């Protein structure tokens, strides 16, 4: 992930788990090293990421019980593969579902600031806002793939770890 205009953002390694009708699934094990400018950590949780089919403007992460957020969806430019690297531009807005079921949109203030500071084009702003509204509604309603679909892929990640 980068931020607008190529500014560095999160970087981490995962494993390719497979694909289904929702898109491609990547896995991130306990012990995954996450880094971005000014922050880094080693994950104490495992999770899977859905790269949506059809070029949707978000990336959805589904985490095990050890994570604070059960679901964390970054609004982003449609992801694209560059060899073995998945690339996308994070557009600040996030839809978060905590383990207790609370769902909210995060970083609206950051999105508003960056829209002005970095001059996000009007079509990018509209894309991010529309994606956030759609994802928020889907997560709150528990519609697929936010209905437990990711559990299959979390189990697949455990199998790939030899657990």
UniProtKB/TrEMBL annotation:
Keyword Hydrolase in record: yes
SUPFAM superfamilies: FomD-like
Stretches assigned to the DUF402 domain: 9-142
Gene3D superfamilies reported for this sequence: FomD-like
Keywords: Hydrolase
Record's keyword annotation contains Cell wall biogenesis/degradation: no
Membrane-crossing segments per the record: none
Official protein name in the record: DUF402 domain-containing protein
Gene source species: Nocardioides panacisoli
